Amino acid sequence: MISVNDFRTGLTIEVDNGIWQVIEFQHVKPGKGAAFVRSKLRNLRTGAIQEKTFRAGEKVSKAHIENRKMQYLYASGDNHVFMDNETYDQIELPAASIERELKFLKENMEVHIMTFQSETLGVELPNTVVLEVKETEPGIKGDTASGGTKPATLETGLIVQVPFFINQGDRLIINTTEASYVSRA
């Protein structure tokens, strides 16, 4: 058991028969009444995000999530195949359960697979990935003065806003939590 006063971003807990990951939390101490913790939680089984308020000092069960380092191999119909680099065991995850993560996955990329009591919950991506620009409007000399952005389609199909000086074929560092441009690779 863990106190809600000890919440931190990324912590996994068991609440209401679900496995939840803390995305955001805020300790609130109103002038009148008892203190409480306002949190934003993501269900690791469904991907749903829910806001939940706990009384200060309330206890919740900590979920022990195991992260296994695996390599993304290929898509097989509606499933995606991952391989453990140490044991060479392969698992298949349905596309529906990793829909958001597929926008960042390339073949042979190493990721962490989250498991809870032998149940596969999903894919944990690295903080940043390097992807190539497949399509974007060409930059025009002088456009950089305004500091504007334009849409760029990356090799995985993800569309992000990039500065005007980015061209087709450039390799970019992309933030996976916000799906945003960081810099050139």
Automatic annotation (TrEMBL):
Gene: efp
PROSITE patterns xref list: EFP
The family this protein is said to belong to: Belongs to the elongation factor P family.
Organism: Peribacillus cavernae
Domain Elongation factor P C-terminal: 129-184
InterPro entries to which the protein is assigned, alphabetical: Elong-fact-P_C, NA-bd_OB-fold, Rib_uL2_dom2, Transl_elong_fac_P/YeiP, Transl_elong_KOW-like, Transl_elong_P/YeiP_cen, Transl_elong_P/YeiP_CS, Transl_elongation_fac_P
Span of domain Translation elongation factor P/YeiP central: 67-121
GO cellular component: a single term: cytosol
Lineage: Bacteria, Bacillati, Bacillota, Bacilli, Bacillales
Keyword Cytoplasm tagged: yes
Entries under PANTHER family matching the protein: ELONGATION FACTOR P (PTHR30053), ELONGATION FACTOR P (EF-P) FAMILY PROTEIN (PTHR30053:SF12)
Protein name as catalogued: Elongation factor P
Pathway noted in the entry: Protein biosynthesis; polypeptide chain elongation
Biological process per Gene Ontology, one example term: peptide biosynthetic process
Keywords: Cytoplasm, Elongation factor, Protein biosynthesis
HAMAP family for the chain: EF_P
CDD domains membership: S1_EF-P_repeat_1, S1_EF-P_repeat_2
Compartment list: Cytoplasm
Keyword ATP-binding: no
Role, per record: Involved in peptide bond synthesis. Stimulates efficient translation and peptide-bond synthesis on native or reconstituted 70S ribosomes in vitro. Probably functions indirectly by altering the affinity of the ribosome for aminoacyl-tRNA, thus increasing their reactivity as acceptors for peptidyl transferase.
GO molecular function terms attached to this record: translation elongation factor activity
